[in-house]
Amino acid sequence: MNKAFNPFEMAQAQFDSVADTLDLETPVRELLRNPLREYHFSIPIRMDDGTVKVFRGFRVQHNDARGPCKGGIRFHPQETIDTVRALSMWMTWKCAVVDIPLGGGKGGVICDPHNLSSREQEQICRGWVRQLARNVGPVTDVPAPDIMTSAQHMLWMLDEFELIHGGKYPGFITGKPVGMGGSLGRTEATGFGVIYTLREALKELGIRPEETTASVQGFGNVAQYAIKLYEQLGGKVICVSCWDQADQKSYAFVKKDGIKLNAMLEITDRFGGIDKNKARDIGYEVTDGDSWLEQEVDILIPAALEHQITGETVGKISPKVKIVAEGANGPTTPEADKVLKERGVFVIPDFLANAGGVTCSYFEQVQSNMNYYWEKDEVLGKLDVKMTSAFKAVSELARKRKLYMRDAAYVIAIDRVARACHDRGWV
User: Fold this and answer.
1) Sequence ranges of the domains in the chain
2) Structure pTM?
3) Which of 75, 204, 343, 417 is the most buried (most CB within 10 A)?
4) 67 phi and psi, to 5 degrees?
């Protein structure tokens, strides 16, 4: 990650720009451009070799005017508090833009699960909950999985929360295993949500999906399911990229006649890392990780980390690209946004495009709290309706007021949160 890049400053700059458009009063701006609460803590863990290691953990609750905070917990060696702050703010706007009654939160631990045993990871999960047991819960703050955390991590956290509080609280956390309070359709939700919004954008631009090609950054859960649904619509992905843990760098995998998702999954580890030697054996060209951005395609889907399309890299994007569908959080900087806007590229902003995950998390929370679970088709049907209506609302406002899609999405989201704060009498 670029050390000079501060994701929270970027999130605040995006907010400030829209606050001017909405002419928000100073107290509302002060309230919304910073988190309501932050928790920083240490998690001491006895490692398998008998030594004790101390991990740093965070939880940031940006705003809960519209409902309990909601947001993932990521395990990442380069986690920073500013990343967590930015992500919590984006979660507030994400919940508001799809109009679900939740606020924004985010959590993290500075660690690398690649180098931790299952028992050590479990201890980190339980330690994280012990530090926050009085500050999170089904009616206050509902965590979920994020980068390098899984359903198993969520279940360990739920078990610790229930041990501390002496009851069953499946609505405390989402992303749980199906059969233990998890929702069907949750694993597909974020990736499918990206493609539901992409489908609507293609309709609006009068482009048939089967006549398009795409390049995808990342090959984790979001990317895999986005590719799956995009292929079902008839589209062709010609490039994916992923992080290589052994080499500590990223690679892109190119196949001009279209990648074969199932074949790729067979040579992919549980962290979304593709075996480059096996990929070459089945006909893929393996190139530098940044080359996903330079492909001659109609659609770019950044579905990895933040800060990928920047003022320095945006010039590498092919003139053929018509749509950027942001599966990742904060992949495009404001400098790059200006260039994309000038070039007339249709950008589906992150907190709209990837809101399928939090929408399905909300569905899981509802199901857990009422102890009644829906069939998968019902979950995905409700998700499609939510994502489509949110896209249409943003798109209509963008056309009506001649706004960039990101600005239109921010206007809708920030206005909803500001009204909730005002109606509660906070400002």
Assistant:
1) 36-182, 187-353
2) 0.90
3) 75
4) 155, 180
